[in-house]
Amino acid sequence: MRLPERQLAVLEAASATDELTMDEIATETGLKPETVTGAAFDLRDEGLLAVTETTTEIAELTDEGREYVAEGLPETRLYRAAVDAGAVDGAVSMGEVIGRADLAGPEVDIALANLPRKGFGTIDSGELTVDPDADPDADPEAAALATLSDGGSVDDESVLDRLASRGLVDLAERTTRAVTLTDAGVDALMEGVEAAETVGQVTPDLLASGEWADVEFAEYNVEADAPAVEGGRKHVLRRTADRVKDVLVGMGFQEMEGPHADSDFWINDCLFMPQDHPARTHWDRFALDVEPMEDIPEALIDRVETAHRDGWGEDGDGYHSPWSEEFAREVALRGHTTSLSMRYLSGYAGAELEPPQRYFSVEKVYRNDTLDPTHLLEFFQIEGWVMAEDLSVRDLMGTFEEFYRQFGITDIRFKPHYNPYTEPSFELFGDHPETGEEIEIGNSGIFREEVTGPLGVDCDVMAWGLALERLAMLTTGAEDIRDLHGTLADIDFLRNAEVSY
């Protein structure tokens, strides 16, 4: 039997009685581990070697974990400082103990959360008491960190999971491959195996000399394991945004552009949002510490103020609430891209306003929301409006049905809703393809006269704001908006997610 040199070296190094790992074979033969692995799989396919795989979980200390090995866990340091402060005999000030423990920044919260969890003591009304019988030296988490730091292994999975949740260790899986000689492999060695000089590729010298006719070419195992190579690709949200733009342009819309940081006048006042509305407080908006915006048409400011104070048209009544031009000029990150619609509808952005007109944008907005599976602090909004004579809710619903049909979504539902700036108004809902959960995907309506009148628009305008991320959730099956972007994004999901066409 003739075998390539690398295969012969691996075959001769293998044992019929003991499993040897690829690394051990590599050390024995002087070959690279990846060369050994390739040769081993080739020999396995020839029936000369048996290859086994064992997957184990390994834990490695993070930078924070190594820091705590040197300095001690925050809760341990807090406990020892409390003992020194006399907390064994009675409650002591938590601030005093924190100072003694030399804790700073996030370490304070970490210590206060883990000290009672481990039974080291209790915290009540800003005072701390410790258990004199507690033994921080016997803490399994601290012991596990020390063991890992010394190169040892920890078998307690619950302790490892806890340390991983605290960001002190990284858990990963390691696959170890080992080989043994089969009976056929033993027989081949006993009968004798010769080394065959093999060539991996045809070279100009081989062709010129004619030696190519006499050499033995290496066989390529196209089924052998190989490292995955992931090429770059456009993010699924960006691809969804591009698809949205293609659809809306195909429906006759033009794209709007405008600033991310804008005055409250364009963001809310033009939209007939009262200045004392809860959504306009500092709790819900990202105000910027910059100079007020001066470049706003004075005549438009006067008309918008009139609409807020006294209403617009024969039946207008207004809010009869305080209205401040100073507040209107303050700058904040836009909470919706309707600020662009106001700029365009007023003619300030230089748009063509002879009806009919259709405009849209797919831009980022910023809201001080609570993070959850369907909300982020910043996200993309699909803004759009149509200006024409005699528009109705049926026109608006038909536009949505045609738009979402382009993404394979045909079960959109409409529910009546209240907005200060549209009448009638309704929200849009769709079903998540994986969970079946009903998800709100947008808000819409016909702009009130209090919005269009001050802008100088004398015909109907239907408008909407749709959530790009929630559209992506419906089309890709993502169950959590944080899977799409942010620190919790699922990289494998992003690599494989496809956009509906």
From TrEMBL:
Q: What is the predominant subcellular site recorded for this chain?
A: cytoplasm
* Keyword list, A-Z: Aminoacyl-tRNA synthetase, ATP-binding, Cytoplasm, Ligase, Magnesium, Metal-binding, Nucleotide-binding, Protein biosynthesis
Could you tell me the EC number(s) of this protein? 6.1.1.20
The annotated subunit structure for this chain is: Tetramer of two alpha and two beta subunits.
As given in the record, the signal peptide range reads none
Task: Return the similarity comment.
Answer: Belongs to the class-II aminoacyl-tRNA synthetase family. Phe-tRNA synthetase alpha subunit type 2 subfamily.
UniProt catalytic activity: tRNA(Phe) + L-phenylalanine + ATP = L-phenylalanyl-tRNA(Phe) + AMP + diphosphate + H(+)
Cofactors that this protein relies on: Mg(2+)
Residues holding L-phenylalanine:
T338, Q381, I382, E383, Y421, F447
Its name, as the record gives it, is Phenylalanine--tRNA ligase alpha subunit
Q: Name one GO biological process term.
A: phenylalanyl-tRNA aminoacylation
Q: Which GO terms describe its molecular function?
A: ATP binding; magnesium ion binding; phenylalanine-tRNA ligase activity; tRNA binding
Has the keyword Magnesium been applied to this entry? yes
Asked if the Swiss-Prot or TrEMBL record annotates the protein with the keyword Metal-binding, the reply is yes
Report the source organism: Halorubrum cibi
Gene3D superfamilies assigned: Bira Bifunctional Protein, Domain 2, Winged helix-like DNA-binding domain superfamily/Winged helix DNA-binding domain
Q: Which SUPFAM superfamilies match?
A: Class II aaRS and biotin synthetases, Winged helix' DNA-binding domain
Binding sites annotated in the UniProt record for Mg(2+): E423
As recorded in Swiss-Prot or TrEMBL, the protein's gene is named pheS
* Residue ranges constituting the Aminoacyl-transfer RNA synthetases class-II family profile domain according to the UniProt record: 244-489
Q: Which GO terms describe its cellular component?
A: cytoplasm
Where does the record say this protein resides? Cytoplasm
Quote the record's cofactor note: Binds 2 magnesium ions per tetramer.
